[in-house]
Amino acid sequence: MTVVRAAALSALTLACAPFAPSIAGCAPEPREPVMVIGHRGAPLVAIENSIESFRAAKAQGADGVELDVALTADGVDVVMHDELLDRTTTCTGAVRDRTVEGLGGCRLKNGEPVRTLEAVLAEIGPEFRLIFVELKVFDGRAVAQADDVVAQVLRSGHAAKVVASSYDATANIRLAARQSEGIIAGWDATTNEALSRATEHGARWALMPFRALGGREGDLARGTGKELAVYVVASAADFAWAYDAGVRVMMTDTVPLLRAVVAGD
Question: Could you tell me which residues come within 8 angstroms of residue 240 by beta carbon, excluding any fewer than 6 positions away?
Answer without folding.
Answer: 12, 15, 16, 19, 23, 25, 26
